Structure formats: C-alpha cells, structure tokens
Amino acid sequence: MAADIRAELRLKVEAMKAKGKRAPHLAAILVGSHGPSEVYVGHKIKACEEVGFTSSKLSYDVTISEADLLEEIDKVNANPEIDGLIVQLPLPEHIKADNLINRIQPEKDVDGFHPLNFGRMVQSLPTHVPATPLGIMEMIKRAGISVVGKHCVVVGRSRIVGSPISILMSRRRFGYPGGATTTLTHRFTPDLAHHTRQADILITAVGKPGLINGDMVKEGVVVIDVGIERVKDPSKKSGFALKGDVDFETVAPKASLITPVPGGVGPMTIAGLLKNTYHAALGDIYTREYHYHD
Fold first, then answer.
1. Domain 131-262 adopts which CATH fold?
2. Quick one: which of 79, 244, 259, 292 could link to 264 by a disulfide (CB 3.0–4.6 Å)?
3. How far apart are CA 61 and CA 66, in angstroms?
4. The predicted structure's pLDDT at residue 294
C-alpha cells in the first residue's frame, strides 16, 4: 500500500514539474546522534527521493540550546522553498518538544502535531492529519475494511497516535471510512482484556512488546499494531529483534487481517507524511474540499 501511495505521488510530482512548478520540499531536524532517529530520518529522505521530492536533513549537535534551535525553525518557516518541516523525536532532555512543535508554521507542520492542526482535525476541518493516523486510515480504506457500526478499541492515548486515531475512527470525514464505536483504553484501564476481546478492529500503540496475546482478541478481529520496540534475540546477528505490542504468533491465527512489525504501519506513516507534504506544497491544506459523509 505504501508503495502504491509513493507511485501515485510520483506521478503527481511529475505533473507539477511538467507545469513548471518545483517539487515539494521536506526538511527534517535531527538533534544528536540517536541511532534509531537517524535510521527513521534516512527512511524518510529515501522515500522523498523515490517520489521526486526535495529533502533536507538539518543536523545539530546534541549540545545545541533550545533557543538556538527555535531560531533554526524560524529560518525554515521563513524559507518559501521548504514546504514541510518535521522534528525527529526524541530530543535531548534540555529541549522541550512542545516548544519546537508549536514554533513550526502550521502550514509546514506535516507531522500534524501543531495545536492549530490538531484542533482543526478534531473539528473535522481541512488540515494536516497526524502522519501515523493518516497512514492507518489509508490502510483501512485501501484494504476495504468495513468500519461503520464496528467496535474499534484503541490501546494507548498518545496525541501522536491513540487520541487522534480514536477520533478519526469514530467520524466519517476527510474521505476516509469511519463511523465506528470507539473505546480508548490506556495504562489505567482496568481489565484491558475485557475491552480488547470486544474489538472488531484493534489498534494498539503503546510500545510494550507482547502486551496483546491471543487470549485477548476474538476470532476475525482486524489488528493494527503501531508499537515497535527492540528486544533481545540471540538468534539475530545484531542480538536484537523488533517487536510490536501484539504477540503475532498467538494473535495472527485469530485475526482476519493483521499488520506485521516491522513493515506494517511504519511505511504507511511515511506515506502519510509524504501526502501531507504534497498538499503543503500545493498550498491547499486549509482550503481543499473533502468528501464528507455522515
């Protein structure tokens, strides 16, 4: 699915260039030398190259002050040649992520984290939808999953995934399927299994390997696993393996559809980021018409 989206965007970018317009430009801020973050940014840059976008990796030493980093964001905001800006998380402890995200010009906030964009999403107004939830909604749409009247259980209430996907699944907006009855659970929810067993669609984004096992789901459930963590695995050359929140071996036999980790939601997140960047370049992010239906 992610490859399909990249192919579709590549054709759109070629059409833009044929009309004499420049390609969309995505910039990524990377602070320090956090290994996984460098890998994630590398994947995003590679995806940009594949679809014909221009990309910039803005790397800074881990000792950079928050004030200096805010000035760097101001420079990107003022640069008309850059359409989208993301700040790769996590950040050093002396830098508050919210201060950086809130400084990004909302039109260039292609991660969809700025309060203005998040608020517009809640109100079902045209906006940058957070990239991971956008990728999940694309996945559900392209898989032809029936959502109306289904029970969707979301595990994890983060504003990056859990909270926004619970809103999107309950609505029928932005041209995506919705209309589910949504239950949002989190670490304070008693008897989590009671809720997950009721799910027709289970979306989990906690980062706790093996949290959901086969006894916690019903037959035919659709499972979307956003969690990804490194766990020790002596059978691997690196000594580690990537695992999701879902125990794949026990859940997959009961699921009608299930995403793998890695290779599932991750590529779709990047696809969502690319779609947001494309619309940022068009300049129609707050004006484009969506197919709304109740």
1. Rossmann fold (3.40.50)
2. 259
3. 12
4. 38
Token readout for 174 is: 């932005």
Per the CB < 8 A criterion, the answer to whether 189 and 195 are in contact is yes
Residue 180, φ and ψ in degrees, nearest 5: -85, 155
- Computed over its alpha carbons, how large is the radius of gyration of the chain? 19
Number of H helices, E strands in the chain: 10, 10
Strand order in the sheet with 151-155: 181-185, 151-155, 201-204, 221-225, 255-258
Q: How many CB atoms lie within 10 A of CB 192?
A: 17
Give bridge partners of residue 257 from the DSSP assignment: 222
Residue extent(s) of CATH 3.40.50.720 domains in the chain:
131-262
| Interval 180-189 mean pLDDT | 96
| Per-residue pLDDT tens digits for 24-73 | 999 999 999 888 889 899 999 999 999 999 999 999 999 999 999 999 99
- Residues assigned a catalytic role: 44, 88, 111
Q: Where in the chain is the domain with CATH 3.40.50.10860?
A: 2-110
200 Cβ contact list (under 8 Å, min separation 6): 150, 151, 152, 180, 220, 221, 222
Paired tokens of 252 = 């997959």
The model's pTM:
0.94
Least Cα distance to 1 among 173, 216, 145, 151 occurs for 145
Fold of 2-110: Rossmann fold (3.40.50)
